[in-house]
Amino acid sequence: MRLLPSVSRLNVLLACIVLVCLTQVVSAEELSAAAQRLQDDVKYLASEELEGRGIGTDGLEKAAEYVAKSFQESGLNVTIAGGDPYQEFEITDGAKLGKKNAISFVGPNGETISLNIDDQFKVCAFGGSGNFNSPVVFAGYGIQAEDAGYNDFSTIDVKDKVVIMMRRNPQQANPHGSFAVGHGISRHAALTTKLSRAYSNGAKAVIFVNDPYTDRAEREELELQVKNAETKLAEIQKDAGGDAAAIKTAETHLEEVKNILAELKTDALMEFGYGGTREGTSPPTFQISQEVCNQLLQASLGKTLDEIEAEIDRSGQPYSRYLSGWNAVGEAELNVVKVPVKNVIGVLEGEGPLKNETIVIGAHIDHLGFGGEGSLLPHSKEIHNGADDNASGTAGLLELARRFGKRTEPLPRRLVFIGFTGEERGLLGSEEYVKDPLYPLANTVAMFNMDMIGRMEEDKLTVFGVGTSEVWEPLLDQLADPLGIKLSKKIEGFGPSDHSSFYAKRIPVLHLFTGTHSDYHRPSDDWEKVIPQDMQRIVDLLEQVVITTTETEAKPGYVHIEGKATLERSGRRPYFGSIPDFGSDAAGYAIQGVAPNSPAEKGGIQGGDVIIKLGTQKVGGLDDFDLALRDFAPGDQADVVVLRDGKEVALKVTLSSPRN
Questions:
Q1: 274: Cβ contacts below 8 Å, ≥ 6 apart
Q2: Which residues fall within 8 angstroms of residue 429, CB to CB, at 6 or more apart?
Q3: String of b and e for 179-212 (b: at least 16 CB within 10 Å)?
Q4: SS3 136
Q5: Buried b (16+ CB within 10 A) or exposed e, 437-459
Q6: Residue 459 · residue 486 · CB < 8 Å
């Protein structure tokens, strides 16, 4: 806030005191009973005690128990899911390193180079388990990039071989090179992209090695910083006006930079867990030291990594070679970590001729725990409390359960309230429910979802799915205006929250959302920033939508909305129309459904299929499928092989233009 120039220091102080007092009066304004309940729920769910409600934390268990208790106290039936409130299932939560992990290289004369784990090699968590005894090939950077006119696999056959690849990409120092994107690294440099390329070309195992440029560039940058700090210190010391404090500051900075340089590790190996885990199947994947790699390269090719890197940078051409006579022998043992989780379910039965029809009301209860994958502050280990995402939606769910639970007269249709778990990992809880519903999906007439309803600005509420039934828009318009809510209406039924799983089953949906903000997926998403009065208005709106929907004899008719499901990867690739099944452990790209009238549906792809081949590329997971799809253009007809009920089925899918 700008102050007028004529205001004195005393007046400024008095103004600040008045402002603080007024703020306290506003913040201390008595909340309505409903707003207070909403605030209390958010405050507990987003408390430090609940540890950010991350998968595998005690805090998530406490959140589930809190929701279950609230459902029961509201009068809901919490015994439908097998006698308790919980629909239990397991999800993959990374991997742990087993005991059987080894690599050795056997040369043409029988010489053996046996490696020590942690010192000379590491196992990569994004690879798979397995053993091998196969010939070795060096595949440069492991890049297959038509857009850059570069393909490390064009001159070698890697099928059933162990493939060694450098990290990152060629010509990192060249801002005008084929892979330049402003910082020297392109999308082709991603570890999982390289792994997908090797897997699709039939590699038996994959071995990464650090590229020489990165270490060299980092050291040169730090040496330059030391030189600059020394120059700055000398300038300050020579300056007659330089004071002791300035000299001390410069000396401290110089010492800090020197320490960083001294502690810089050369050729550091990736710690297990770096790069995350990969869905589907993968070959065993490792990283070896540059020293070991140079032993192999010099023995076979008479060159080192530095020399090969320099030659690729100079020529712009791949340098892929067979390492004649060398075999790699080894194994990797990764134990997939399965974590038990649960949806929380409470039911209010309907009464009358429509009692067997169901309306689902949902919100996800999980968040990011202590950060990590999904956090927008990726190196933070702080608790991500997730007040808006999604303690706010959960609080709205509990409040609606209280209101409907207290009704003395039953509604005509059944209401099923669900606190989903695993939304942040890929809509796992809602996918689990639609796979194993408590009530038939054919008789589920609507699904209403709340995800981030805590921070409405300027009375604006975004509602997704408005086009999924013809009844939604006029109903929302009628109900929102008296509440002072300005609607931003989105017709799409697919979106990044749990309603997508239901729309994929051709159920009309609405998803309520107040927008992202600077605290989204960060530790600063705290309960004090949520606005309970606005949450109450949103809950009031959804309550009336639910009442109207359940009391209207005709069920809301499903409308197919053209457009790409946002769960599918974005970017420059043709539209396929599949919806990933993130909860599957299948060896391939498992899908839970297809978008209506999409190329996938027209080509005969079905929910439950596992895609194992697209075009000429093997598919072991979503990453492989995503890469393979890039090889096609809109209008191309792609050969697709799926596993369906254990049998391979060959299909043809005509791809269409990308959807935004």
A1: 124, 125
A2: 341, 343, 364, 366, 418, 420, 421, 422, 423, 498
A3: bbeeebbbebbbbbbbbbbbbbbebbbbbbbbbb
A4: strand
A5: bbeebeebbbbbbbbbbbbbeee
A6: yes
- pLDDT score at 594: 82
Q: Which residues contact 489 (CB under 8 A, 6 or more apart)?
A: 462, 463, 466, 473, 476
Which residues face 577 on adjacent strands? none
Q: Which residues pair with 641 in a beta bridge?
A: 613, 650
Q: How far is CA 387 from the centre of its chain?
A: 19
* CA–CA gap between residue 459 and residue 240 (Å, rounded): 60
* Per-residue confidence (pLDDT) for residue 242, from 0 to 100: 66
Retrieve residue 32's tokens.
């309505």
Pairing status of strand 162-166 against strand 205-209: parallel
SS3 34: helix
Q: What per-residue confidence (pLDDT) applies to 138?
A: 98
pLDDT in tens, 18-51: 333 333 333 446 899 999 999 999 999 999 999 9
pTM: 0.74
CA distances from 260 to 229, 255, 264, 379 (A): 13, 9, 6, 18
Phi, psi of 294 (to 5 degrees): -65, -35
Which structure tokens are listed for 31?
Answer: 């909340």
**DSSP annotation of 650:** E
Reported as a single tens digit per residue, the pLDDT across 453-481 is: 999 999 999 999 999 999 999 999 999 99
Backbone angles phi, psi at 151, to 5 degrees: -150, 105
Residues in the chain: 660
CA nearest neighbour of 630 among 655, 605, 601, 659: 655
Nearest to 129 by CA among 331, 290, 268, 270: 331
Q: What is the CA radius of gyration of the chain?
A: 29
Angle between helix 305-315 and helix 212-238 axes, rounded to 10 deg: 90
CA distance linking residue 329 with residue 104, whole number of Å: 5
The full DSSP string for 485-548 is: PEEEEE--S--SSTHHHHHTTT--EEEEE----TTTTSTT--GGG--HHHHHHHHHHHHHHHHH
- The token pair at 496 is 């990044």
CB 576 within 8 A of CB 593: no
H/E run at residue 257: helix 244-263
Q: Which residues of the chain have pLDDT under 50?
A: 1-28, 182-184, 564-571, 660
Strand, helix or coil at 4? Answer: coil
Cis peptide before 11 (omega within 30 of 0): no
Which of 40, 89, 93 lies closest to 66 in space, CA to CA?
40
At residue 604, the pLDDT reads 95
The closest alpha carbon to 459, from 493, 478, 438, 482, belongs to 482
Going by C-alpha positions, the residue among 501, 375, 492, 340 that lies closest to residue 426 is 501
Which pairing describes strands 444-450 and 358-364: parallel, antiparallel, or unpaired?
parallel
Q: How open is the CA angle 648-650-651, to the nearest 5 degrees?
A: 140
